[in-house]
Amino acid sequence: MMARMARVGWPQRSFNLPVPGVPFPVSMNHSSSRSKMVTTALGMKRVAVWTVPTRQKEDMEVGLQRMASVLTYMENRTDIPYSLPKLDWVAVPGFGPIGMENWGLHMSLESVILTSQNHSGAVDSLLIDEIVAHEVAHNWWGNLVTNIWREEIWLNEGLASYFQAYGAEAAATGDGHAERFYLRVTVPALLVDQESEGFSHQLTRPGQDRGSYCGAIGLPQATLTYLKGAAVVRMLQAYLDQNITARDSFPEEFLSGPQGDGGPFLRGAQTYLKRHSFGSTNTSDFLAAFDNATGSPVTDMMSAWLLNGDYPLVEIMTMGDGGLGVYARQNRFRLSGKLSCSASKARWWIPVRYKLKSSPEFKWAAVPSCGRVKLATLADANDTIAANAGRSGYYRVRYREPLRTRLLADALDTPPGATNAQLTHVDLAAMLDDAFHMSFAGVQHFDAFLNLTEVLGSRMYTSHTPWAIALPHLRAARDLLRRSATSQACGDDLEQYARERLLGPMVREASNPYSGAGRGLGFSVGADEPLDFRLMHQGLLQEAGNFGGVDVISKSLEIFFGDGAASLHPDLQSVVYNLAVASGNSSAYEQVKSRFLEAEDPHEKKRLLLALTYVPDPGRINETLQLAFNDAVPDRDKFLIFEKNDFTYTYGGLLARGGRSIDAAADFFADFLTSLYNSFGDCDVRLWIKGIARALLDDEKSQNFVQAASQGFQPGQLEELTARNSQWVARYGQSTCRWLRSRMS
């Protein structure tokens, strides 16, 4: 071949032989680049970002810095050098996957490695930090050591997703990536894992091929592989490292410090990687390395989490000792509401991290079986307990009375900004999420969720996480109530409650040390706002408009038509575009659509497309949906029209809007189902169909939709979703009306 190339005058290039290892995807590329040398404790490496020649060198700088920082961090924590002398990253316009970890030559969409001073917002920064950290972590978890076959893919993706949070925190210290682990990883995993989806919930299936869903490792299965895998690993790490944990969420040793031994968990991880470098492994190899390195029976502790589907609900109750004894008991949690724990079947070994109000210390206990396990003794009748504190555990918690009432009262009595609160912002977010889903399972009244939302109003949290949990749930409840003939007015009341008691006070009065006034969330972003504050700031302004805030909508229209949006910070450009379209102004919709079709920057193009999904008019909603078949729209962008992601506010398409958007989408899917399957494939379309069904009641409209869209689903699968919503309204519709009247009168 080389001789033939020489004869015809083709240029020749020589390449070093690859490192020893298993077959893995490789690629070649030619484009313009920006690079830097990185010196770590384990040697010097070159990292580079490559892109099309029209992009500015400055657009590559943030991604380049993140790559270098995460590479240094991973070498530091694993005590194993990166295997190659260089690491390149290619930004590919219209790339199919979000990112791909080809050894030595990573590839991704432009928008997850390149930034733009004029167009990159908080959500863009969030995704760049997370995806860069994830793909770089793959050089150890997946490239250096890889799974033996598809049924073990969680060893690659789960571990890379786990170290993603650490790597992002190390690369962007102060941006809160570690504290958002619960929101970004645990919450979406719990959501998927609690439903009967018609596919395996197991992380590993020894001796069997990975069960397919939607023809491949589809999004629900991938959610478990990536996110449940990461959440279960985090739970193991928190328990093993309990004696060195310096922070509520993550051990300080994982974020800084010298290379090498950072505690039992890292010893296990290093043992696994060094023992199996350049080889293939299975779950037994992973667990055996931890058994040997830590001296703990990790295989016995973790087998049920990896080999079983679903997850437990841990009930916390008082009994004995004059009502001061605190006990824990486990049950299997499913949205069907059938809680169960059978001594004849394998149960979870559950590590419970807890803290008494009367003591500053965090303590641990294990719940290994169906029986009740005593955790602690309360100091007195005013004492209480926070279980799964910091939410490192992959399970939900139900507090029995009087503990639930005591926790609520304590949270309401704690002044804003207090640093000694019994419940942290992550604990409150988790209680909100647990309460919401337990109401759909019928095992806890919806009033428990509503009561917890009052804590948001009284404490005025400026953390992104609790708001990102509470507000999508409030919108979902509002929309279900509005669909019911008997509770329709209560949906309007719930919107008023969220607008006047939660969002309005935050927009006007929230502590804001980054603004000149020191208070409020206006249409300007302070120069020093950290990422988590920016996510909260942008999100609450957006939601104030979504819940009918006239002032915010009017201001957005004023800025939009005054052409002031171009000079706004990108975070607030999103708010202005979205709310201008959401106002129903026809001219605003036309201008945003025109700008979208003409935009070249990928961040701006995504922002404008998502703004179109906020339109309230059914005819315009259908016009937006038709963009899915428009050749002028890049194929990758078409997915954004439908994708539902409530956990970053603005990164979600039409199915996250609820209300009339869902009705229009149901009609659109029924009319164009075959075309949608041909264009987007089974997995994504079925996921979107389920997203529509999750927002409908069991009525004539939903029955027509289910009949049209049920192909490929198990019998009764979609009907189960709509029936559950109707049961929820029947259970809690009138009591929610009474709760709202008592608060708003």
Automatic annotation (TrEMBL):
Lineage: superkingdom: Eukaryota
GO BP, one annotated term: peptide catabolic process
GO cellular component: cytoplasm; extracellular space; membrane
Membrane-protein topology: Peripheral membrane protein
Signal peptide: none
ERAP1-like C-terminal domain boundaries: 387-702
Predominant location: membrane
GO molecular function, one term: metalloaminopeptidase activity
Pfam families: ERAP1_C, Peptidase_M1
Domain Peptidase M1 membrane alanine aminopeptidase positions: 65-242
Tagged with keyword Protease: yes
Gene3D superfamilies: 1.25.50.20, 2.60.40.1910, Neutral Protease Domain 2 (1.10.390.10)
Family in the record: Belongs to the peptidase M1 family.
Protein name listed in UniProt: Alpha-aminoacylpeptide hydrolase
